[in-house]
Amino acid sequence: MAIVIFTSALRRFLDAPQATVSGATVGAALAAVFSKQPALRGYLLDDQGAVRPHVNIFVNGELVRDRVGLSDAIGAHDQIYVFQALTGG
User: Fold this and answer.
1) Fewer CB atoms inside 10 Å of the end CB: C or N, the chain?
2) Which CATH class is domain 2-84?
């Protein structure tokens, strides 16, 4: 089962605990997380289900390619990291 990890910057705003989920794609893994933490969906994805501009998702250190359909394949031992973009001066 894959592990979905949310950065501490994101966890400051929402309840986003690490989750172990099954699924063949990033989208399926996130859907499993959203079933338990529905508030995360609206923060991470837009109305069409695409990743919002202020969010980046990595699988094993590589940025996901499909930000619209989240069809990037994942394996049972993959780690999915969800980052909120930060800005500062």
Assistant:
1) C
2) alpha beta
